[in-house]
């Protein structure tokens, strides 16, 4: 615990925080931006719940919305208890941190390990949102065939054994990818590759849903409005996800927000056009899926590639490539992820929500493009970040670093997720797969005891008028 804690606002441009009798100066604007970004990322949790819910059958619609909030709650405890310390302790090794900051010990006014511009407590609550959102992506693979109780145990273990080490080696200054010079602005490997690959491992462990390959599972999303609503929440929150990762209110944050919106827009249009060639329909679900793919792909590169003023683009061909970068992220993500949805048929795996295609493949696309298009000038727009850049800056080793990082993330997440699932499988009370009768009846009523739509209540309210009106009249009224 700190021996002295004092906060004094000095003028309008600085904030002095005294921790252990040492004064630190911060910008209230930077703190406000990061805390605002925290709230933006928070709303992505129910966003992905609604997105997943809309894609499922009605009898399982409530389970995904409920799981999104349950996952947030579990990881919130895990992060306070030891997750933050395992990821961001200053005495971490190249793979994982220690328990120096267990229970948030020593986490208050000192500068954060990622940026001296904000105090550690602000960085901690912001990174909590990343830690909670990541397992929720993977949990979607349990759709329609898993007990909810054991999933909470899975989330706690997975966040500790999978997310924390990968985030540590990527973002902790002592991590091996960070030391090599890996460029991952907001979570290509720790968030998307890790969760997307975990979803594949989960799908392979669970096996196929009842009726897989038959007409009963050839259904359309039960509520496309939920899919759109979830996409809106995710797109809105992603400005905090990527823009907030600048950890300061500066031009780099603005660049990240602009490239994020561009990639999402182009990704949505691209996926929708690919679907149009087959069905000759402007698919709403296709647009939403493409927008998510574009957001996933731009995540690692959003603070390293972006857009620029039109005049500079005309003057310099190099800047034209800079302009094209965010657009190219969207085009390739919308294309590659769209076609990657067919991989589940090749490997005979029931990935109900195409999480592997959208997140693991999308994250891989983003990592590769970041290595190619990252520029020192973009990263340096915050006034203090110095990087060698990617291929556009003739730093060709960057691609090898990113391929090593991506491969390590895929292998580690797949193996560890599989081991966790099988360890739970042989632990009494923690087996995940529900019996056939529960799957047939639906997870909502069997596991939650409620449904997303209460038709029984509606029927009760309408019951007096269900029969013909004349049958309810008195004889002298007929």
Automatic annotation (TrEMBL):
Keywords, ordered alphabetically: Ammonia transport, Membrane, Transmembrane, Transmembrane helix, Transport
SUPFAM superfamilies hit by this protein: Ammonium transporter (SSF111352)
Domain Ammonium transporter AmtB-like residue range list: 32-453
GO molecular function: ammonium channel activity
Entry GO terms, CC: plasma membrane
The UniProt record lists the keyword NAD: no
InterPro entries in the record: Ammonium/urea_transptr, Ammonium_transpt, Ammonium_transpt_CS, NH4_transpt_AmtB-like_dom
Primary location group: membrane
A Pfam family this chain is assigned to: Ammonium_transp
UniProt record similarity statement: Belongs to the ammonia transporter channel (TC 1.A.11.2) family.
Protein's recorded name: Ammonium transporter
